[in-house]
Every structure is written in structure tokens, then in C-alpha cells.
């Protein structure tokens, strides 16, 4: 059966480890778009965290962002949004206020944190990976008081992103918050936690988009590298792990291909186009 849609994670999958989008991947994306594929970004990043090159290249039909909390079309128009219930998000923020953490609130496709967190010293203290710090520099918006900022629109929180200084405190929060109704937790780094609505994850959002487009799961390829990619890997007919993926994802995938630095995205896209062509003969 022909592939109709390919969903791609960004960090560690589409991008090289240095955060760049290679020429080979760009060429494959253009070929995929011209070749009739729906190319879909499916990222834990907010919409405006996505590199401008990705948002403006014109190759992607849709963008799933904030771990499935939002879906936008190729022009950035928001088609769907799933928020954390404000009573639950308020309780979560209260729990986190007693912890040694750096908290970010994702709202309207953008990440916000307190201004005191916008420094190399703060990121080093919370163990933010050096490869991710350029993303923080480019995309984070600082506010004087995160609690006051939250109270302005408590009903429009797409995701709460947390960096922990203490691994044991992180595990304790995973246990406590993970038992709360109405939310899901995942992680994409060794010291973070991503909290979003129980009705939103990368798989749920891909399912909603597939229903909108009338594309069956068996005609979908989804590719990623981290635990937060597992729901979309499970949903797609062909779940692909890049060679640098975590072991949990590799166990869930239908197949494992080359690494992100070896242009895994280009490999999968061009293979799908070739197989689609052969199926027409």
C-alpha cells in the first residue's frame, strides 16, 4: 500500500545533532512534497520554537507541536488546540513551586519562563544540554513573574515544561504528578519533564490529523528518537526509529534506520517515494 503521510520528529530525527537541517534532507523534503506526500512535523517544541527554515521552507503540509497539543497548517494557522484543565495546571504549578526547578509554560505556540532563567548560568545549573541552549536563546520569552503570567490565561496552557536540578526530585514529581487525572507526562531529555493534557500526545494528534485528511494509519510513516515519540510510532502503520533513538523507542518501532546525522529523514522519504512509484507500475 502506498505511503501517503510521513510524520517527522525534529530534534534528534530531522535535524542533525548540531541542530542544522542538512541539504540532503531539504532536497528529500522538496521531493516528497512535489511527490504527493503529506509531510508533517510532529514535535515537542512549540510552533514558534521550530527553526524558521522548517516553518518557512514550504515543504510541510502540517505542523503538530507542543507534544500534540496543537496542529497548524502550512501557513501557521492553528487548526486544533488541546489545553491542560486550568484547575489541574494550577495544582501542578503549586507542586513545582516547592521544588528546585526551572518551569516553562507553553501558550499560543510559544514558550515562556521567568527572566531569571534566561542565562547560561541558569541553564548550566539545571543541566540543560548544550545543543539545546541555542533553542532557548532564540525562542524563550521572559516574564517577571511566571505565576502572574499564568493567571492571565489559566485556560490556555498547552504544556508545562520542567528542568530539574535534582534527579531524585524529578522522579518524585514524575510519580506524584503522573497519578493526577487529566494529564500525561513524557520526557525528551535526562533531566526534563513534559506535562500536557491527557487528550494530547504525538499519537493522538496524528490520529486527529489522519481523520481530518482521510488517511489510514497503514499509509502513514512516523519517525522519531525519544520516548515522547512512542505514541506516534505506535499509531503509524510503519513506525521508524532512527539509529540514535533511545532503547524504549527502538523496542516499539517496526524498523530501525540510520542516524539523524546520516540523514535518516532523507533515506525514509526517498525510499517511500520509490516504493510508491513501483506500486503504480
Fold and architecture overview:
The chain folds into 2 domains: 157 residues, HAD superfamily/HAD-like (Rossmann fold, 3-Layer(aba) Sandwich); 112 residues, Hypothetical Protein, Haloacid Dehalogenase-like Hydrolase, Chain: A, domain 2. The mean pLDDT is 95. The protein has an 8-stranded mixed beta sheet with strand order 5-4-3-2-1-12-13-14, with helices on both faces. With 281 residues, it is of the alpha/beta class.
Query: Helix/strand-derived class?
Result: alpha/beta
**CATH-defined topology of the largest domain:** Rossmann fold
Number of DSSP-assigned strands: 14
CATH class of the largest domain equals Alpha Beta
How far the N terminus sits from the C terminus, by CA atoms, comes to: 13 Å
Number of domains: 2
How much is the average pLDDT? 95
Count of DSSP-assigned helices: 12
User: What's the shape?
Assistant: globular
What spatial order of strands do you see in the largest sheet? 5-4-3-2-1-12-13-14
Q: Which value, in Å, is the CA radius of gyration?
A: 18 Å
Helix content: 25-40%
How is the biggest beta sheet arranged? Answer: 8 strands, mixed
Low confidence ranges? none
Q: In CATH, what is the homologous superfamily of the largest domain?
A: HAD superfamily/HAD-like
From the coordinates shown, what is the CATH architecture of the largest domain?
A: 3-Layer(aba) Sandwich
- Oligomer state of the chains in this structure: single chain
Which band does the percent of strand residues land in? 15-25%
SSE run: EHHEHEEEHEEHHEHEHEEHEHEHEH
Amino acid at each position: 500500500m502506498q505511503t501517503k503521510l510521513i510524520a517527522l520528529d525534529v530534534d534528534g530525527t530531522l535535524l542533525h545533532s548540531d541542530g542544522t537541517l542538512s541539504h540532503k534532507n531539504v532536497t528529500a523534503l522538496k521531493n516528497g512534497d512535489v511527490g504527493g506526500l503529506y509531510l508533517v512535523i510532529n514535535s515537542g517544541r512549540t510552533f514558534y520554537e521550530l527553526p524558521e527554515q522548517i516553518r518557512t521552507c514550504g515543504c510541510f503540509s502540517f505542523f503538530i507541536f507542543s507534544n500534540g497539543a496543537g496542529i497548524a497548517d502550512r501557513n501557521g494557522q492553528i487548526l486544533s488546540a488541546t489545553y491542560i484543565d486550568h484547575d489541574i495546571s494550577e495544582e501542578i504549578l503549586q507542586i513545582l513551586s516547592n521544588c528546585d526547578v526551572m518551569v516553562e509554560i507553553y501558550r499560543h505556540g510559544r514558550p515562556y519562563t521567568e527572566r531569571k532563567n534566561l542565562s547560561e548560568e541558569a541553564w548550566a545549573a539545571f543541566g540543560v544540554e548544550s545543543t539545546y541552549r541555542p533553542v532557548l536563546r532564540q525562542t524563550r520569552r521572559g516574564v517577571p513573574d511566571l505565576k502572574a503570567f499564568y493567571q492571565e490565561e489559566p485556560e490556555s496552557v498547552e504544556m508545562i515544561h520542567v528542568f530539574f536540578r535534582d534527579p531524585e526530585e524529578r522522579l518524585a514529581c514524575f510519580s506524584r504528578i503522573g497519578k493526577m487525572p487529566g494529564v500525561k507526562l513524557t520526557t525528551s531529555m535526562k533531566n526534563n519533564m513534559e506535562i500536557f493534557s491527557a487528550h494530547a500526545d504525538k499519537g493522538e494528534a496524528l490520529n486527529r490529523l489522519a481523520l481530518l485528511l482521510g488517511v489510514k494509519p497503514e499509509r502513514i510513516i512516523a519517525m522519531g528518537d525519544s520516548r515522547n515519540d512512542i505514541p506516534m510510532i505506535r499509531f503509524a502503520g510503519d513506525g521508524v526509529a532512527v539509529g540514535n533513538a533511545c532503547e524504549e523507542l527502538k523496542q516499539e518501532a517496526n524498523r530501525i534506520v540510520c542516524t539523524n546525522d546520516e540523514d535518516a529523514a532523507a533515506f525514509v522519504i526517498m525510499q517511500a517515494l520509490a516504493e510508491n512509484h513501483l506500486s503504480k507500475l
